Amino acid sequence: MSFRRFTFVVSLASLMFSAVAQAGPVTWPGKAKAAVSLSYDDALNSQLDNAAPALRKYDIKVSFYPTLSSPIVAARMAEWRKLAADGHELGNHTLFHSCAKSKPGRDWVAAHNDLDKKTMAQMREELTTANAFLHAIDGKTERTLTPPCLDWELADGDYVKTLGILFVGIKGAEKIPAENTAMLLPDGHTGKQLIDFVKKSAQKGGLAQIIFHGIGGDHLSVSKEAHEELLKFLAENREVYWTDTYINIAKHLNENRKEGAR
Ligand SMILES: [Zn+2]
């Protein structure tokens, strides 16, 4: 390679780097090649029965996003509180889990929970009430949000854009380059498929997000064995994969962005 050509490549690379640095993070704490966020949505019995003991066994910290109107939140309050005391995150997944009924396959969305018909004023009240509810459970004042169904278009606007200020971070709306983040909603995946997904993210230096629902039961489930295989892999490779609560990862991303903009 000639000197001139080399100079061109370097300057192009540094240009690209500064663009990425301003748009978002490319580095993770320590020697980690990727960040991994495991989350468990909707407040399901199988999460308390099967996921929680496995997470304790491998000492992996994750995020739970319970739908707060679920009877399972009220019925098993002490166990949700214990999860928070053990270092897991309880994040906002709204009170009522409204999704856009107009999208394909959404017959299950109740008419009174149709996000297409909700307004910004209603959503603001729902999200702040959910934050207060979570504060009553774990005493924390900072939250992240996973918008149910990853929908955020209301009758009168985009609630992630307008109400994002209420949160440290929002799943699916990270301000980092698209190639630096990947999301998986497993349904019957094997342990190997889950591990391959995080390995692929590490090759790209990115953020791997797995949004679980049922673990060995309930809907969109993976088996207890597949889930445990992933936890074991992450526990044995902590140096490479920084697995943490989404709020800790979101704070790191925010910090990185500030540094990139400096
Ligand atoms: Zn959900």
Provide structural commentary.
- There is one protein chain.
- This protein is an alpha/beta fold and 262 residues long.
- It has one domain: Glycoside hydrolase/deacetylase (TIM Barrel), CATH 3.20.20.370.
- Helix content is 44%, strand content 13%.
- It has 9 helices and 10 strands.
- The protein has helices at 3-23, 45-58, 71-75, 77-85, 120-138, 159-163, 191-203, 224-236, 246-261, and strands at residues 34-41, 63-65, 89-90, 144-145, 153-154, 157-158, 169-170, 181-184, 207-212, 241-243.
- The strands form 3 sheets. Strands 1, 2, 3, 8, 9 and 10 form a 6-stranded parallel β-sheet that branches. Strands 4-7 form a two-stranded parallel sheet.
- Helix 1 packs across helix 9 and helix 7 runs parallel beside helix 8.
- The radius of gyration is 19 Å and the shape is globular.
- Residues 1-22 have low confidence and may be disordered.
- The structure holds zinc ion.
- Zinc ion (ZN) is lined by residues 41-42, 93, 97, 148.
